[in-house]
Amino acid sequence: MADPSLKAALDAGRFVVAPGIFDMISARVADGLGFTALYATGYGTVASHLGIADAGVATYSDMVSRMGRFAQGCRTPVIADADTGYGGLLNVRHTVMGYEGAGVTAIQIEDQEVPKKCGHTPGRRVIAARDMALKIEVAAEARRDPNFLIIARTDARTGLGLDEAIERGKLYRRAGADIVFIESPESEDEMKRIGQEIDAPLLANNVEGGRTPILPAERLKAIGYDIAIFPAIGFLAAAAAFERVYTHLRDHGDSNDRPAGDDYGFGRMNELMQFPEVWEFERRWAREEG
């Protein structure tokens, strides 16, 4: 079931900052920090699971199990990337039912052609606006729980301009989207226009090194946004940490003499992975095995 707390937060006017999660270590760390929601990034999930570009190669089957594991392993509501819905209208229906059944709280569907591409990379093309609106109508009809939220994303800004992107956002809202996501606006002024012209909860995508300026949460709220996702912040930091410690190991032949605080700590990781619960279970039941 969807977690009602995300919808309640939006209804109450609380601004939501959602960090990107991409595997269960990142999910467990973020889950313990008190965020209102977590964002299960398609880019990061595909990269960590398959080690390839987020370019439409991953399938529904690849993704629903991963997204479900995030949702089931976290107490915090999970917003999940579902690309284009993995096909036509019947695929969208199946995707919504599958993600909802897996425990996800919000699903993001975009209007790119298949195969899709990452929203901050070049060469994206979109389907007809009416075809996407039908996908949103199908998605809204397919959900069983009103707390399960539908996010409609348009990638029209880069190829067709801001006016077209805004008109699509309005259309997708009328079609039944709970949240509108205009991908890749290229300035704060563009973001202000989106906030002024679209009467719907709005999502801002903050990608370090991407096409859109990263604004503070207070500023985003002031110009009309309701959610800020940071899909890349976790895996970019993780990749840098991997490179640093692996380079040290290559150059020194051991893991000694690294800077203090350079790792998470084996004890903390044991706690994060819930080893104390395993040890307590073993203590309780050891007498039966002896």
From TrEMBL:
<dbReference type="GO" id="GO:0016833">
    <property type="term" value="F:oxo-acid-lyase activity"/>
</dbReference>
<protein>
    <submittedName>
        <fullName>Carboxyvinyl-carboxyphosphonate phosphorylmutase</fullName>
    </submittedName>
</protein>
<dbReference type="Pfam" id="PF13714">
    <property type="entry name" value="PEP_mutase"/>
</dbReference>
<dbReference type="InterPro" id="IPR040442">
    <property type="entry name" value="Pyrv_kinase-like_dom_sf"/>
</dbReference>
<dbReference type="InterPro" id="IPR015813">
    <property type="entry name" value="Pyrv/PenolPyrv_kinase-like_dom"/>
</dbReference>
<dbReference type="InterPro" id="IPR039556">
    <property type="entry name" value="ICL/PEPM"/>
</dbReference>
